[in-house]
Amino acid sequence: MAFRFTLRDIALFERPVRFARPFRFGAVTVEATPQLFVRVEIETEGGARSVGAAAELMVPKWFDKRPQLSPDQTVADLRRSVAIARELYLARGGLDTAFGLHAACVAAQVSACATEDIPPLAAAFGPAEIDKAVLDAVLRAAGIDFFSGMANNIAGIDARLTPDLSDAEIASFLAARQPLARVAVRHTVGLDDLIEGQGGVADAHENAGARYFKLKLSGDVEGDASRLHRIGRELARLPHDYTVTLDANEQYELAALHGLVDRLDKDESLRPISVKLLYIEQPMPRGLTRQSPLGDLARQDFIIDEADDSYDAFPAARQLGYRGVSSKSCKGLYKSVLNATRAAKWSAEGGRYFVTGEDLTCQAGLALQQDLALGAWLGLQHAERNGHHYVDGFGQTPEREAEAFAMAHQDLYRSSSGGVHLAVHEGDLLTKSLGVAGFASSVHPVWSSLTPLQNNASRLSKEHIA
Predict the structure, then answer these.
(1) Could you give the CA distance from residue 310 to residue 302 in angstroms, rounded to a whole number?
(2) Residue 158: which residues within 8 A CB-CB, separation 6 or more?
């Protein structure tokens, strides 16, 4: 049953995160970036108060890759996205459901961000983070865990944003979910990561025993083919089976993409990659994606990621030959749920469509746990996990906060003299401890350790908050 409440407050904070090693994807290399934290307070119909929280990295040059913008400018736009969403959400007033609040604000959010030259994917970041914190508060108020709450549609998800679905189809999908007890880590290999030897892709200390690997592409066919050959040679030495996915981060044009797929089909030196390949992620720029049917390229499975910037993006991509779409908490948990409902419906009608677990922005603690819970509940058997690899454990998180997460979620973290780190069990993450009241965490950040979100001033016109 949907839970109704009144939103009373939204507070926004941030904390710096330094990477343990550079992470290069597409045309950008990230070595540090701030992590956003959201704290919301709701009031139930009975007058009780409940606090919820969410967190996510504000990654530069992913939500908006326009070359004229600096990395810092793209992070500033993510801050604006959250600040705009805060004002829109607080302006609603009155009782509503968690999804109802989201649905009432999403169009105004995109419109208001557009007036500040913030594109739809970055615009979605603000509501995505507030929605997670709101859901956390709702689940805590109801005294129920995420898995049970979602199965019973505590958020009130309906078809108002997805006219291709019915309320009954959504309800049936939600009720049928059974969360996975384990989710395999998909180890990301960035463009600057070591390939051979100690610290390379086959180093168990480096990859945490992963059986799934996500390999970044640069957009240069020859360079990518040479690099994939080297990676495949290393992965073939693993003592266990493996599979791979490829991620171009919008770096390919259509003609070059044909060249890459031809190489994968015909080049014997790439067989350790091609015979293990599950899908290719977001090959072309998001604007080009909607103009470029895949045609015979669809002999490979392709998914959209950065092009998933609206509720109609997945159906549009389907018509172009794409089979899948990524689930990322930073793009919106409700879109992930509704896209998964679509994939299940279309597959039942005779196709083969799927949702994948991708993760650029999740760090240990709230962000990782909420995204992991979402993926486990959707049945995603493996998920990209960058956080444990590119950041040293909890990074700059205060020790008492990291230890609190480790104590509360002992199947997910391990403590040592070097701090608290993600615990990977034979290549898998365990999800049992996520089944607590609230959104997958019994711990909140130490709020006093955070700084207020920068540049959080209101600039909305009345037409956007009407």
Answers:
(1) 18
(2) 99, 103, 167, 170
Instruction: Determine the pLDDT at residue 218.
Output: 96
Answer yes or no: do 127 and 207 share one domain: no
Q: State which H helix or E strand residue 101 sits in.
A: helix 98-114
pLDDT at residue 386, rounded to an integer: 74
Which residue range is the domain that position 222 belongs to?
A: 182-451
DSSP 442-460: S----GGGSEEPTT-----
Residue 86 backbone phi and psi in degrees, to 5:
-55, -50
pLDDT, the chain, mean: 95
Q: Are residues 111 and 187 in the same domain?
A: no
Two structure tokens written together for 76: 């500033």
Residue with tokens 């962000």: 367
Q: What is the pLDDT of residues 375-433, one digit of tens each?
A: 999 999 999 987 777 888 898 899 999 999 999 999 999 998 889 999 999 999 999 99
Q: Are strands 243-247 and 419-422 parallel, antiparallel or unpaired?
A: unpaired
Query: Which pLDDT score, from 0 to 100, does residue 459 have?
Result: 57
Distance CA 377, CA 365 (A): 18
176 CB-near residues (< 8 Å, 6+ apart): none
| Shared domain check, 360 and 219 | yes
> Looking at residue 417, what is its pLDDT?
86
User: pLDDT, tens digit, for every residue of 88-142?
Assistant: 999 998 999 999 999 999 999 999 999 999 999 999 999 999 999 999 999 999 9
* DSSP H stretches of helix in 196-284: 204-207, 221-235, 254-266, 271-274
Q: What is the phi-psi region of residue 350: left when phi exceeds 0, alpha when psi lies from -120 to 50, beta otherwise? A: left
Q: Identify the pLDDT of residue 418.
A: 87
Secondary-structure percent of the chain, ordered helix, strand, coil, rounded to 5: 40, 20, 40
The bridge status of strand 324-327 relative to strand 354-357 is parallel
Among 140, 175, 210, identify where a domain stops.
175
CB atoms < 10 A from the CB of 445, how many? 23
**Same-domain pairing of 273 and 409:** yes
Based on the fold, state whether residues 171 and 314 are members of the same structural domain: no
